[in-house]
Amino acid sequence: MMPINKFQDAGVARRVLVIEDNPGDYALVEDFLLENKNEFILNHAETCKEAKAMLSSEQVQFDVILLDLSLPDKTGIELINEIVAICHTISVIVLTGFENLDFGVKSLSLGIADYLLKDGLTPQMLYKSILYSSERNKRDIQLLDYVKAIEEQNQKLRDIAWIQSHIVRSPLARMMGLIDVFANHCVSEEEKNLLANHVVECAHELDKIITDISDKVYEEAGPGNDFAPGVSIAS
After folding, report:
1. Which region holds residue 33: left if phi is over 0, alpha if psi is between -120 and 50, else beta?
2. 163-178 pLDDT per residue, tens
3. 78 or 233: whose pLDDT is higher?
4. CA distance linking residue 84 with residue 184, whole number of Å
5. In this structure, are residues 174 and 209 in contact, taking their beta carbons and an 8 Å threshold?
6. For the chain, how far is it from start to end, CA to CA, in angstroms?
7. Each residue's pLDDT tens digit, 75-96
8. Angstrom distance (rounded) from CA 209 to CA 167
9. What gap in Å lies between CA 197 and CA 71, rounded to an integer?
10. What phi and psi, each to the nearest 5 degrees, are found at residue 16?
11. Residue 4 three-state SS
């Protein structure tokens, strides 16, 4: 169905999909939300099949779903599972006349944002539920994005550490071998000078590797991080 857009400011309005087969209940929800003009754009689906088609479309992005649990083609837990599975990051609020605490708790555990009884529902209750659910959902998405970014950054840093640790081992092994010759073997003055030069070369190589590691960590961490770019002690 075409969206019922009775609001002036669609730029900031929340788009709500009302999945309801009862015309009277849909009209009631519509009247309730019309009390907060310019804040909502309504779309209406009467069956689970129709709702899934609308949710699968890339043309419309919904902020909140209002879901009745008794549709012609699906009901109850099966309906909740199908809608939650396809709506991904959209808040789902159940509107039902089925007053059962255990069922309500189970529904919440399946991923819905709120469970409201149609009997006794007021415009203020519905408005607050939509507002709180959508804002909470936005924070959850932001948190998930933040956690994902941190995990990706940590993986990049682990990759850098693993690669660079193998590069570090080569000059370090040579340096340890040279120091062992110094400590445990009799060498001439000329050989000592030669060994000392090799140790210095290894030290410079290690210094460059460490500086490169610091630079890569700084680049991967991005702006505003606590890392400083590498500075060679030889510079």
Report:
1. alpha
2. 667 777 778 888 888 8
3. 78
4. 72
5. no
6. 70
7. 999 999 999 998 878 899 999 8
8. 8
9. 84
10. -115, 130
11. strand
- Read off the tokens for 145: 């994005």
101-109 helix and 76-87 helix, angle to the nearest 10 degrees: 20
| Ramachandran category for residue 23: left, alpha or beta (phi over 0 → left; psi -120 to 50 → alpha) | alpha
Enter the tokens of residue 165.
Answer: 């640790």
Whole-angstrom Cα distance, residue 231 to residue 213? 11
Is residue 93 classed as helix, strand or coil in its secondary structure?
strand
- At residue 149, the pLDDT reads 74
Note the pLDDT of residue 225: 54
Quick one: DSSP state of residue 220?
H
Least confident of 86-90, 147-151, 207-211: 147-151
- Concatenating the DSSP letter of every residue in 113-139 gives SEEEESTT--HHHHHHHHHHHHHHHHH
Chain mean position to CA 169: 38
Number of other CB atoms surrounding residue 25 within 10 Å: 19
